[in-house]
Design goal:
The complex is a heterotrimer of chains A (361), B (188) and C (393).
Chain A (H helix, E strand, L loop, with lengths): L2 H36 L20 H11 L10 H17 L10 E3 L2 E3 L9 H22 L3 H32 L4 H7 L3 E2 L3 E2 L2 H4 L1 H15 L22 H26 L8 E2 L2 E3 L5 E3 L2 H29 L5 H30 L1
Antiparallel strand pairs in A: 1-2, 3-4, 5-6, 6-7
Helix pairs in contact in A: 1-9, 1-10, 2-9, 3-4, 3-9, 4-5, 5-8, 5-11, 8-9, 8-11, 9-10
Chain B lengths: L2 E5 L6 H4 L1 H27 L28 E4 L14 H5 L5 E7 L7 E9 L8 H5 L5 E5 L12 E2 L1 H5 L7 H13 L1
Antiparallel strand pairs in B: 2-5, 3-4, 4-6
Chain C lengths: L7 E5 L11 E7 L2 E8 L7 H5 L7 H6 L6 H16 L5 H29 L3 H22 L8 E2 L2 E2 L7 H23 L3 H7 L7 H7 L3 H6 L6 H4 L10 E5 L5 H24 L18 H6 L1 H11 L10 E9 L2 E9 L7 E5 L2 H6 L1 H5 L4 H11 L3 H5 L1
Antiparallel strand pairs in C: 1-2, 2-3, 4-5, 7-8, 8-9
The chains are: A mainly alpha (361), B alpha+beta (188), C alpha+beta (393).
Chain lengths: 361, 188, 393
């Protein structure tokens, strides 16, 4: 066994968990504050430690304490086993998928290449779909196990919605897979390097614009957020987690925030060129108007890490913006949108991509 | 004058059928709010005054909404110039009170020039609906609702304002007096 | 164990986020489709009509605040107009114009609230908070006029409790543009948004005949294409002096109601502007010692005023309309708000009946939601703008 790989993987695992969980915790604050500023409010700013407020940054900690100390209630006629299992099933898969998402460029350490993802497996994207698909069990079991009619309706909605949109999600990405010719996420990003006309980066967004426009709604629908938040729909059927309290309700909420990061990271990797910075090569910037700016390799790598996180942050901002602006769909309209608009368009995108690829060959 | 009847039904067309156009217009509006508000917050953080604040809300316990001086707030009993109370226990306020929250026990006044005065004047403020009829009915300008105080609350189920409290004798809130004087000034 | 084909019974409310105001809808569901439903109302019954019988004519105005608490001013005015009709008096022109201005402000406030709640339940929370901002502007103006934001209690039989402050007109004129900006943003955010259109278009339809049969009035009737507006058809106050448009729809669905409410807000703002232009000077109360309280100078200063004050307030004295009955209606934001008062010549109403505009709408919920999905109940319920205080009285 190669100790180097084990240690590197351990370090990456810890780093990914720290980054993802930290970001998710921060997101609970970001979502509140961003929505508040959008709505001409200030948002949560009261949680303090010894009178120190820092614009409400302690709010996530206060929330965590509240959730841990609240009564962990199981309704008397609920299925205890499923009721307990559901939050775990909802939370675990969204963490698994981060094993194959590269959060940074490959690094050369001691003469070896260390990729930015935990597991460098060649079925990366399929792994994501496989484990992303498991998340549906959490919602369905929560709806079923609570023995509540509202939760039941929500659970059924969740299952049909997530299964339907899985198809669109997959098909919208197949075009990208065809172009990059790989399922490995790191390879995908590398496939997006280079420029057209010397200035336009060859990102997935510009190679597959239709796929990007189809992927985003499908991904938000997978994520169960407005405008596709039919399984929660707090003003209609109250959501599949209506019978949950305390830490278990918190796990559902946290799974949602982790999933936001996941969707943002996936979109960044597949369509926004991952860690690629326009006009930045390994030795510095090559500007399209001529001229160069040489940079040492470690600064280039830092810039690339920064670019990745800026792109993820932008996608998160955009998704929160969508969540607080749009009204939600109705159940049958959601199905119609998924099966009648997104799916045929994704198919069309596949055909066009295939034809173009054949013609170019 | 003219009252035209207009049919305002909107039939969505092709532009609305493409979801993205209107969705992005909506996103543009909320995004503009975000950017403008953040800009104002940032400027104010650095001490530069902007015409409007970044938020339209008030940070309640520290910052209070300016209340118009007509506000019907907490009751008070007024006094004459010599400091004795104006109320003559004529019972008009008790009569007109729609929710029977004023209870007066009249008694003989120590002042020989005044016939009656209230030995007890209790307002059961949790019954009070703040209609302002008592102040309107009072023929002596003895009861007013001009303390600009919207928050009247307590930890018991019987908050009864007694005569002393209404007169301001046992008022444990000294900041009241300044507001009270201001209210007087507004009336003149 | 239920057989698979048996409908599922789902009790929506009384404590459900969408049933603001308290109401219960018992649904029979086939999957998510509503097969049958019954509406259970009366959770907020306070006995307004019975309470009026034990209170003097003027005291009952307080209770009208609590009917439609979102547009309390119109309820005040409606009740006072009924009593004034009983007394056969006409209020002075300044009072009438002020009542028009405050009615229209309340209408704006009510429509803002209704639209906000409706779209919030469809998920658009930001639009909701923008309209809440505009509603706050209206509340500030109402506070300026009468000293309270929600429970206004501003009108009196034969006039107003007090004239508006001198800077009132300027304050309104300064606020109208900001209200328009909010309406415009709201309009741009949602009206043409396909997601929102899908939610509300062809949902909760009523035909003309059905709407008339059920006793619909207001925006819901106009949405079906009937141009009925109390302000136009039986003009009260001095509404016949103003130009405004009556919006009608053609489908009678939730979308038409939404657009009509948006359009009416703009019309109300235009009426306010016209009214401010021609706001006459003069007294706001009728010059009748048996109805209007005397001026404060007289009460404090001379014995006649003092006795007049006592005569109007003491139990068993006060305003005594001649025996008879009277019905008058005003155009409340929800529709025709009628007050039917009966007097036996005493200082208390013998009977005071309120015709709440949202009662027929709420009664028609089972008809409107039949065959729709559970999700459709929410926009339909939002569009009828049920106000618990008014519905259950």
């Amino acid at each position: 066994m190669d100790w180097f790989i084990i240690i590197a993987s351990m370090v990456k695992m810890l780093a990914v968990i720290a980054i993802v969980m930290g970001l998710a915790t921060l997101l609970t604050w970001v979502e509140r504050k961003q929505s508040a500023v959008m709505q001409d409010r200030l948002g949560a700013n009261r949680a303090d430690i010894f009178g120190l407020r820092i614009i409400g940054l302690f709010q996530p900690f206060a929330d965590a304490i509240k959730m841990i100390t609240k009564e962990d209630f199981v309704p008397p006629f609920a299925n205890r086993f499923l009721h307990t299992l559901a939050p775990i099933l909802a939370f675990a898969p969204v963490l698994f998928v981060f094993t194959v998402i590269p959060l940074g460029p490959p690094l050369e350490i001691a003469g070896r290449t260390v990729t930015g993802q935990i597991a460098n497996i060649n079925i990366g994207l399929l792994f994501i779909f496989a484990f992303g698909g498991l998340a549906v069990f959490g919602s369905v079991l929560a709806g079923w196990g609570s023995n509540n009619k509202y939760a039941l309706i929500a659970g059924i909605r969740a299952s049909s919605q997530m299964i339907s949109y899985e198809v669109c999600l997959g098909l919208s990405l197949v075009g990208a897979i065809m172009i990059y010719g790989t399922l490995d996420m790191t390879e995908m990003v590398i496939g997006q390097s280079g420029h057209w006309f010397g200035w336009l980066p060859r990102w997935g967004l510009f190679m597959q614009p239709l796929a990007a426009l189809l992927f985003l709604p499908a991904a938000i629908a997978e994520n169960k957020r407005i405008p596709f938040d039919l399984p929660e729909c707090e003003s209609e059927i109250l959501g599949y987690f209506v019978e949950y309290s305390g830490l278990r309700a918190g796990m559902f909420m946290f799974a949602e925030f982790v999933e936001i990061i996941f969707v943002a990271a996936l979109f960044t990797v597949v369509f926004l060129g991952g860690w690629l910075v326009p006009w930045l090569a390994w030795d510095g910037f090559h500007f399209p108007w001529g001229g160069m700016w040489y940079l040492p390799i470690w600064i280039v790598k830092m810039l690339e890490f920064a670019a990745m996180f800026i792109k993820i942050a932008f996608m998160i901002y955009f998704m929160i913006l969508i969540r607080w602006t749009l009204p939600r769909f109705r159940y049958d309209q959601l199905m119609r949108l998924g099966w009648k608009y997104l799916l045929p368009l994704a198919m069309l995108n596949l055909v066009v991509t295939g034809v173009v690829l054949v013609l170019l060959r | 004058m003219q009252k035209k009847v207009t049919n305002v039904t909107i039939n969505p067309g092709l532009k609305e059928d493409i979801y993205y156009v209107e969705v992005f217009r909506g996103l543009w509006i909320t995004n503009r709010h975000f950017v403008v508000n953040m800009w104002r917050h940032t400027l104010r953080l650095f001490g530069i005054k902007t015409k409007e604040k970044g938020a339209v809300t008030y940070q309640y316990p520290e910052e209070r909404r300016p209340i118009h001086h007509r506000w019907r707030g907490r009751h008070r009993l007024t006094r004459k110039q010599d400091g004795s109370m104006r109320c003559t226990a004529c019972m008009l306020c008790e009569t007109i009170c729609p929710c029977n929250c004023i209870h007066i026990v009249p008694g003989e006044s120590p002042n020989p020039n005044v016939e009656k005065f209230p030995e007890q004047f209790n307002i059961d403020v949790l019954r009070c609906c703040f209609c302002g009829y008592c102040a309107e009915a009072c023929p002596k300008d003895a009861i007013r609702m001009d303390l600009l105080e919207p928050e009247i609350s307590g930890y018991t189920r019987d908050i009864i304002f007694t005569k002393d409290f209404l007169l301001g004798v046992t008022d444990d809130r000294p900041w009241e007096n300044a507001r009270l004087e201001a209210a007087y000034e507004e009336d003149k | 164990m239920l057989s698979p084909s048996a409908p599922m019974t789902l009790s929506m409310g009384p404590s459900h986020p969408a049933t603001h105001g308290i109401i219960r809808i018992n649904l029979q569901l086939d999957g998510e489709r509503v097969v049958d439903s019954t509406v259970d109302m009366g959770f907020l019954h306070r006995g307004f009509e019975k309470m009026c019988e034990t209170h003097a004519w003027n005291q009952a105005i307080v209770y009208t605040d609590r009917l439609n608490y979102v547009s309390a001013m119109i309820n005040n005015i409606g009740y006072c107009m009924a009593v004034e009709g009983l007394l056969e008096i006409e209020t002075p022109p300044r009072c009438q114009t002020l009542r028009v201005i405050l009615s229209e402000l309340s209408r704006v406030e009510d429509h803002l609230t209704c639209l906000a709640a409706q779209v919030m339940e469809c998920g658009a929370l930001t639009a909701f908070l923008y309209t809440m901002k505009a509603r706050e502007y209206v509340y500030e103006l109402i506070e300026m006029a009468c000293g309270a934001r929600v429970t206004t209690n501003w009108t009196r039989v034969g006039g107003l409790s007090m004239d508006v402050p001198p800077d009132f007109a300027d304050a309104i004129k300064a606020r109208i543009p900001s209200i328009r900006i909010v309406n415009d943003e709201f309009n741009k955010l949602l009206t043409k948004n396909r997601i929102f259109i899908d939610r509300v278009k062809d949902v909760g339809c009523m035909t003309k005949e059905e709407a008339i049969d059920w006793g619909f009035t207001g925006p819901l009737l106009r949405a079906t294409g009937v141009p009925f507006d109390v302000r136009r058809d039986t003009p009260y106050l001095n509404y016949d002096e103003f130009d405004f448009e009556i919006p009608i729809g053609s489908n009678g669905d939730v979308y038409d109601r939404y657009v009509i409410r948006l359009f009416e807000m703009e019309q109300s703002l235009q009426i306010i502007e016209q009214a401010l232009e021609k706001l006459p000077e003069g007294p706001v109360n009728v010059d009748d010692m048996s109805i209007t309280l005397p001026a404060k100078e007289d009460v404090y200063g001379n014995i006649e005023g003092l006795i007049n004050q006592f005569k109007l307030i003491m139990d068993g004295h006060g305003i005594k309309p001649p025996p008879g009955e009277y019905y008058s209606a005003v155009e409340a934001p929800n529709g025709e708000l009628g007050f039917y008062v009966v007097s036996t010549g005493e200082d208390k109403p013998y009977k005071c009946r309120c015709r709440p505009p949202c009662f027929p709408f709420t009664a028609a919920i089972p008809k409107m939601i039949k065959g729709h999905l559970v999700s459709d109940i929410v926009p339909i319920f939002g569009s009828i703008n049920m106000i618990g205080g008014e519905l259950d009285r």
